[in-house]
Amino acid sequence: MKHMKDCEIYAVIVAGGKGLRMGSEIRKQYIKISGIPVLARTLDIFSSFESIGKIVLVIPKDDMQYCFDNIVSSHSLNGKVCMVSGGSERQHSVMNGLEKVKELSCSKTPVGNINDSCHQKKTTQSSCGHSTIDDSSVSYTTNKNSISYAANKSSIPYAANKYAANKKKLKIVLIHDGVRPFVDHGLISRCIAGVLEHGACIPAVPVADTLKRKDSDGFVSEVVDRENLYQVQTPQAFDLDLVIKAHEQALISGISATDDASLVEKTGARVFMTSGLARNIKITTKEDLLFAEYVVSMGVKGYSC
Question: How far is residue 176's CA from residue 238's CA, in Å, rounded to a whole number?
Answer without folding.
Answer: 12
